[in-house]
TrEMBL record:
InterPro entries: ArsR-like_HTH, HTH_ArsR_DNA-bd_dom, Metal_resp_trans_reg, WH-like_DNA-bd_sf, WH_DNA-bd_sf. Keywords: DNA-binding, Transcription, Transcription regulation. This is ArsR family transcriptional regulator. One of its GO terms (molecular function) is DNA-binding transcription factor activity. Residues 28-115 form the HTH arsR-type domain. The lineage of its organism: Archaea, Methanobacteriati, Methanobacteriota, Stenosarchaea group, Methanomicrobia.
């Protein structure tokens, strides 16, 4: 690694512990970071959290979610898509209906102290 100017205190800790190269190598993979970013983005909106809490109670169709949340179809569709991309919910086709349910990951994210 090229030489960089680091404050003495930080350099001392790095030298006695793992060093800059090892520190950089301990970063999670880009894939993992992208997945975490998607999850945190999905959880960053109060409407999406309301949807998750509803689906934690039971699987629901869009019409019931819409009735509880009171938003336009296009906004609801957007929020459901974000939650699906974050792997927090899944939709199962049942005839002409799509029934949404929370995933294990979605439930885990709603649990205090999740890991």
């Amino acid at each position: 690694m090229k030489s960089i100017d680091i404050p003495e205190r930080v350099q001392g800790i790095l030298d006695s512990a793992i060093g800059v190269d090892e520190l950089c190598e301990r970063l999670p993979s880009l894939t993992y970071i992208s997945q975490m970013s998607s999850i945190h983005h999905a959880l960053s909106d109060p409407i999406r959290l309301k949807i998750l809490y509803l689906l934690a109670i039971q699987p629901l169709c869009v019409c019931v979610i819409k009735e509880c949340i009171k938003i336009a179809d296009s906004k609801l569709s957007y929020h459901l898509t974000v939650l699906k991309k974050g792997n927090l919910i899944e939709g199962d086709q049942q005839g002409t209906w799509i029934i949404y349910r929370i995933t294990d990951l979605g439930e885990q994210m709603l649990t205090p102290g999740h890991e």
